[in-house]
Write a structure and sequence with these properties.
- The longest helix has 31 residues.
- The chain has nine helices and no strands.
- The N and C termini lie far apart (184 Å).
- The protein is mostly helical.
- Among the domains are: 51 residues; 105 residues, no CATH class.
- Helix content is 59%, strand content 0%.
């Protein structure tokens, strides 16, 4: 009985000391988890910067970055609309590339518009036949001096008229008929040809009343068709052509 009690006490002591040793091995010293709570205080003297007249110095439009679509001008909105259009049509990912394409297209359009304006100004100054509109009017001068008019006596008007008719240039054909008429009147000695003379001058030179009336009528047809600058159809040309041929035949047979 006494021996059993001794064994029991020994076992209790062994268990106690084993548990105490284990707790000492697994415990963390208190100095290893301590936290230093002391803070370093900055004692340097900081002087704040001050900007004088800041709002007054940056009041220009160049420093205004608050620009919305509603407050922008019509030109800016138009360019933005074009940029969005190019971006959607050509699947452009970058808005910057779309804006750059818009600028290029607008520059090209500006050049085309300028060229068209210059062209129409040129056409307004010089008419389709290459005559200056500031020259003498049709009711004073027959036609401006050119290669045909200065050489009417050596010109084969039948060939020129045939070529003009084949190309349906009826107005040009009437012009040649009129010059041919002046050539025949000069050849017969009925008038004295001068490119600077007027229709009235030639009419006054014709002493024959019938010839003067025919010349007045053919001059009217010439001025109406040639200087009228409108399209002449085949029927109108045929009527005018008959009048010129009839007058030419009467001069040749007279």
């Amino acid at each position: 009985m006494k021996t059993n009690l001794i064994y029991f006490l020994i076992v209790i002591n062994l268990c106690f000391f084993s548990a105490e040793g284990l707790s000492q091995e697994t415990s963390v010293p208190s100095n290893e988890i301590s936290i230093d709570t002391t803070l370093t205080q900055d004692s340097s003297n900081v002087e704040p910067r001050r900007f004088n007249n800041l709002k007054e110095r940056y009041t220009e439009d160049a420093f205004n970055y608050e620009r919305t679509k509603e407050t922008s001008g019509w030109w800016t909105r138009f360019k933005q609309w074009l940029s969005d259009l190019w971006q959607s049509l050509f699947n452009i990912d970058s808005k910057g590339e779309a804006a750059q394409l818009t600028d290029v297209m607008l520059n090209i359009a500006s050049v085309i518009i300028i060229l068209l304006v210059v062209y129409f100004i040129y056409r307004a100054i010089i008419n389709k036949e290459g005559k200056w509109v500031f020259g003498k009017s049709s009711n004073k001068t027959i036609i401006p001096v050119d290669a045909v008019e200065t050489n009417i006596h050596e010109t084969n008007f039948e060939t020129l008229i045939s070529s003009a008719e084949s190309e349906l240039q009826y107005r040009l054909a009437i012009r040649y008929y009129y010059l041919w008429l002046l050539k025949e009147l000069t050849r017969k000695g009925l008038i004295e040809y001068d490119a600077e003379k007027t229709n009235s001058d030639y009419q006054l030179e014709l002493t024959n009343h019938t010839q003067a009336e025919k010349f007045a009528y053919t001059s009217y047809l010439y001025n109406y068709i040639w200087y009228g600058e409108f399209t002449v159809d085949e029927i109108q040309f045929s009527k005018a052509k008959k009048a010129f041929i009839h007058f030419l035949n009467s001069i040749k047979n007279g």
